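Backbone-to-sequence.
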């Protein structure tokens, strides 16, 4: 048997078979290239970074200032041919702006006639801080404090008090709840101011150019201030200025009420009944709080107390009256 002849006969078959394999492989590679149309992680990434999804985020929230998003993490995988000649890719990304941080999954879709679009399939957003404003309730450029509770993220937001309102912690405040994909919503708003405890302490009268008056306040101390009920206890002393030099002391409990002037300024008046260690033992205290321009911690106050008639100069009928009115001037009192 001529083995060389058989070998020569078989060689063309191997060549034909090798050519067929290469042809199939070439067709397969050509088909893959046609399916993805040259799209890569980089081309999808460039489109994603410049997309409306990155510019605007996955949702729009009330109560926060607008700010652009930046991408902090990006991954692209599974680039494949899709329906109607499109090219699809799986996108996972993280992005954030001044207010929120978002993690998302999306399908990137490319078509030759429509360009790129990104369809979010899953996302989760957490707030980085609380709200910036609540114009419905008059909060502009407010301060806020973010916290996480059992039911998610919440924040307390407040407007700072006007300059010189040393007795206020906050002018008004609200509570807000965050929902991923929706944003912030007002849960409760309290328009009442929040007082601090600075009101408590001892006060001394500020001397005036006109020192006329029958009685001066010579002692004034506020204690037990309740910022919720707006009540406080106080002790006072008033001293006669002229012929009657008697000193009357007592205690009272007063309540604050507010009044907004036509200028927009809010003042807080207080009034309360109390005791006197003279006369029939009664007294009334009054006063008001208002913002100061010089930064001083002052209030105005007056005391009307029951006293004893002047022993040397009162008539018999006056001496028989157990309710001799001892009324101080309206004094400016400064905290010590």
């Amino acid at each position: 048997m001529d083995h060389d002849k058989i070998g020569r006969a078989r060689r063309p078959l191997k060549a034909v078979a090798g050519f067929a394999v290469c042809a199939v492989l070439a067709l397969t590679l050509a088909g893959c290239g046609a399916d993805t149309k040259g799209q890569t992680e980089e081309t999808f990434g460039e489109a994603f970074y410049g997309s409306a999804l990155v510019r605007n985020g996955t949702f729009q929230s009330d109560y926060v200032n607008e700010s652009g998003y930046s991408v902090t993490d990006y991954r692209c995988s599974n680039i494949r041919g899709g329906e109607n000649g499109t090219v699809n890719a799986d996108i996972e990304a993280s992005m954030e702006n001044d207010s929120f941080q978002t993690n998302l999954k999306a399908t990137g879709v490319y078509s030759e006639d429509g360009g790129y679009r990104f369809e979010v399939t899953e996302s989760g957003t957490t707030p980085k801080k609380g709200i910036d404003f609540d114009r419905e309730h008059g909060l502009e450029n407010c301060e806020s404090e973010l916290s996480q509770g059992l039911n998610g993220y919440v924040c307390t937001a407040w407007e700072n008090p006007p300059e010189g309102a040393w007795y206020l912690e906050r002018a008004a405040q609200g509570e807000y709840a965050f929902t991923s994909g929706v944003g912030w919503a007002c849960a409760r708003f309290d328009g009442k101011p929040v007082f601090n405890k600075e009101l408590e302490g001892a006060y001394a009268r500020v001397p005036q150019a006109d020192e006329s008056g029958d009685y001066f306040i010579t002692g004034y101390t506020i204690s037990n201030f309740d910022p919720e009920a707006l009540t406080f206890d106080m002790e006072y002393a008033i001293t006669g200025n002229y012929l009657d030099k008697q000193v009357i002391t007592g205690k009272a409990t007063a309540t604050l009420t507010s009044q907004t002037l036509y200028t927009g300024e809010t003042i807080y008046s207080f009034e309360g009944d109390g005791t006197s260690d003279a006369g029939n033992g009664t007294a009334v205290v009054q006063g008001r709080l208002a913002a100061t321009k010089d930064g001083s911690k002052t209030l105005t106050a007056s005391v009307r107390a029951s006293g004893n008639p002047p022993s040397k100069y009162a008539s018999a009928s006056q001496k028989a009256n157990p309710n001799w009115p001892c009324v101080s001037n309206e004094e400016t009192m400064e905290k010590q």
